[in-house]
Task: structure prediction
Amino acid sequence: MKSEEFTDINGIIARILSKEASSDEIIVFSEWMNESAKNRQDFNILSEFWSIKPDTETLAAEISFNSNKFRFFTQESGSRHLKSRKRGRILLLSIAASFMLLIVSGIYLLLQRQISGTNYIYLSQNDISYITLPDSSKVVLNRNSRLSYSSDFIRKDRKVTLEGEAYFEVKKINNKKFIVQVGNSQVEVLGTKFNINAREIDQRITTTLVEGSILFRNDNQQLLMRPNQQLTLHTQSGLIENVITPDAYLDTEWKERICRYKSISLSELADKLTKHYGIEIIVRNNLKDIKISGTFLENQQIEEVLNIIQNSIAFKWKKDNNKIIIY
Result:
């Protein structure tokens, strides 16, 4: 950027998105886009978030590429703010909302300001993300998941909303519950370690308790869980399964980037690999029910994983278009 007037690329991006950029700013923006593929990728992500709007009209935007997520909660000065007001909408300023996007290691923080307060929305993309909440509770957010909470989080009951999967280590604070909202159900705790998988595609919510105790509740029932219990709510039927699992840690090892499986059928493992790698894996009938155990690292290629599985049972596999067939 040659001119100091146009060194604030964040501000220029906001004006580009709000269609209020000057001709000089458009030139600077074009140069920035041509500098690297990463710049173009970042702008595409920003464009997607810009299109997410609350019920009221979006009247202001703040964008930051700050590399330290905790500054969002502590920094009052030194940050640059850009407010973009649409002409003819002055009367609507009382319902203004703003968005702040943070890009750090695959996690995006969307800060949404409305009359009722501020909503903090964490969205993970293709990597596992680590979050420290304002009460010092720890959350590990799995890929393609979303965690949100309001600015009232620490003042009232500590409530977060989860879509996807996350592992929680909740700090105990006397007389202050911690609530995880998942669909129409809630998990209520005081201080404990647990995992929740609430991906819509699975049509079920699975909660695995590692330490402490939690209360799982919805409109029809509630259940107190103890360590090494796993509860599954089938969202379509409303049925609940609650089982004792001595291997609760198996459902939390994803946070260490390890995939461990124990005494599951090859067809079950194929389903897990299909979700993990995004490629359909088909198991022929004569192999589907064979039980298998093993471990692989989540960053290993699917070909490597299949070779690992072949150490346990004999089979062949082939690629057919965008499918893998095990036979």
